[in-house]
Amino acid sequence: MTPLTSKQRQSRATQERLLAAAFEEFQLHGLAGARVDRIAERAKSNKRLIYIYFGNKEQLFDVVVQRSLEKMIDAHAVPLPDDLPGYAVELFDYLEERPEVFRLFWWRHLERRDTSEVEQANYRDKVARIAEAQRAGRLDAKIPAAHLFAFLLGVVQSWSLASDALRDAAGEDATRDRRRESVREAVARVTGTSMG
Amino acid sequence: MTPLTSKQRQSRATQERLLAAAFEEFQLHGLAGARVDRIAERAKSNKRLIYIYFGNKEQLFDVVVQRSLEKMIDAHAVPLPDDLPGYAVELFDYLEERPEVFRLFWWRHLERRDTSEVEQANYRDKVARIAEAQRAGRLDAKIPAAHLFAFLLGVVQSWSLASDALRDAAGEDATRDRRRESVREAVARVTGTSMG
DNA sequence: GTATAGTAACTATCTAGTTAGGTACAACCG
DNA sequence: CGGTTGTACCTAACTAGATAGTTACTATAC
């Protein structure tokens, strides 16, 4: 690490502020709905710098998504596959604490179809681990590994995915603790862990 | 039904073309990304008529969403709650045939938070039926009814929700038939139907 | 001939991206 | 050291094109 001059430090700080502001804007409004001017303003910075540092709006969006993705992957590197319900609950908590992150991912899913290297590698790795556990007989193998992982993600996200109308219908049962325990139970059942 | 004049019939036809074009535009680009000009063009009609018939872009969006929602609810009115896996598979097929419909719903979820009467009633009804079956002992009651239904929807949507990266990781297992059977099995496990 | 369906051209506003310039920090020179 | 200059960081004002919504008009069925 070369020591940074004060100018460089300031520059980095500005970039961080821009990224944070962009994250906020994009998770709220998506790519098409986001306004470059608002991002600059929110960052207490200047629009020009966005184009200098990040190229254009789309590239900024991609950088923001990529960073959030990496952060999430880093936060959940280890715990697979012998405690899938535990992993699901961990992800559930992550999601509950950061609904904005998932909003951002949905926007990307709708507005930009492409999928990054990091992401592909991550999925391949996790699916491979589950498949390995299945071959070793440590996990029920009736449902293929990739399906199992897809369902796990589906269950974990089901509440934020569901319309508010459904949440309303849940009434008292909609507290976070109860939802968490249901997620654990559901994933245990799907993965066959509850019978093991 | 009053008999329609030819003018009225033509007017209705124009409205239908506008709605169809709007559906296409909105499911592709969302509310913010949609272009009123493109909708008019696609409908081989005129922009002005959109404002006459539907008010403005947002109201048009709401009408389009509402219609799709009602169509979907009508298509799946009956089959709950004693064969939840069957219901899930039916929904799964509906989704596979009409991914655009779900894209539209996701856009709405991100871009407009409100939730319609029809939708609320629909959820309340379905959750109530499941709860009833639980009370009657026909269905495992460890997971609350609303949670069960949320998970069912999560599992059904998990594939279209998942990043393409995960689909890639599934390889040969990603055929629709195999995915359908996994959905059936997963929902059976979550709802406890497989043990019954 | 008049009300209803339809059209094209227009406008005010907004927005991504750019131009032209200013400011402050460091480095070099006298 | 004190001043000068180059350069990296930053800013405000601008532009060209797009976009939601309107106005003013024509055509056609009854």
UniProtKB/TrEMBL annotation, chains A, B:
Domain HTH tetR-type: 12-72
PANTHER family membership: HTH-TYPE TRANSCRIPTIONAL REPRESSOR SCO4008, TRANSCRIPTIONAL REPRESSOR
Lineage, uppermost ranks: Bacteria, Bacillati, Actinomycetota, Rubrobacteria, Rubrobacterales
InterPro entries noted in UniProt: Homeodomain-like_sf, HTH-type_TetR-like_transc_reg, HTH_TetR, Sco4008_C, Tet_transcr_reg_TetR-rel_C_sf
Gene3D superfamilies: Tetracycline Repressor, domain 2
One GO term (biological process): regulation of DNA-templated transcription
DNA-binding region: 35-54
Gene Ontology molecular function terms on file: DNA binding
Organism: uncultured Rubrobacteraceae bacterium
PROSITE patterns membership: HTH_TETR_2
Presence of keyword DNA-binding: yes
Keyword tags: DNA-binding
The protein, known as: Transcriptional regulator, AcrR family
